[in-house]
Design goal:
Helix content is 42%, strand content 15%. The protein contains 11 helices and 10 strands. Strand 2 and strand 3 form a beta hairpin. The longest helix is centred in the N-terminal third of the chain and has 18 residues. The radius of gyration is 19 Å and the shape is globular.
Length: 298
Amino acid sequence: MFLFKRRGSQNNGEIDDSSQQDAKINELRTALGHLSGHSLKYCDDACLRRYLVARNWDVHKSKKMLDDSLKWRATYKPEEIRWHEVAHEGETGKSFRANFYDRFGRTVLISRPGMQNTNSPEDNVRHVVYVLENTIMNLRDGQEQISWLIDFTGFTINTNISVKAARGIINILQSHYPERLAISFLYNPPRIFQAFWKAIEYFIDSKTAQKVHFLYPNNQNSVELMKSFFDMENLPSVFGGKATLTYDHEEFSKMMAIDDLKTAKFWEFSDKPCRHMNGHSGPEVAPEEPMPISVSSA
């Protein structure tokens, strides 16, 4: 097991006092100026807090990061992507929301690079963005972060996503979804992955790097770390657990069709901020328990 190398270090500007944090949030909101529509709904207090944490509570840097995200969201429109547009990317189950949670109640995202089935970097990125948005929409109350498990079963250089797609996903995750990733485990990557890794690790910032771990089934430290985050009875065997993992694309598609209706309702245009939910403000839409994947005790 090893961690990502850090690329430089950022100033540790953490603020523990809640009143000081609230003051920073208010300062950032004032700096942003007038917001409306989806931007207003996106920029609730929890969102502003995540951007401030990502930039060590520096309001100027946080505003720049958030401005860039708002511009990206206005053009890329991630909340408007629908499952039928990216379903072909998900046919093999290469990235999906799991039907179990980690020990901290966080929703789990599973990726399997060995199940890569398409060649378009743009479509690959768009699919991952859809899954990220869907996972966030389905976070439990009080949760703002996800756990990401990556299974390298069947991985080859030929089946892996392109370096271009990987860079795009990394950039979007750390630039436009700050503090959404709690932890990521890359489970049992083969030696041939090292060449691919060298091509992308330069683009990973230090904050993201600290959250990512390489784990190996024969390493006791890896086993113990996985146990500290997951119940082994629920964790699929491909990650060292005792459950069986199968992906049913038809069932997953049905659930995504329902979720797309929830997403459309959540992002209904309004200049009035609504109820806080999972780090966004929106109408009363309860998160659905994930259930597309069959996981049973082995």
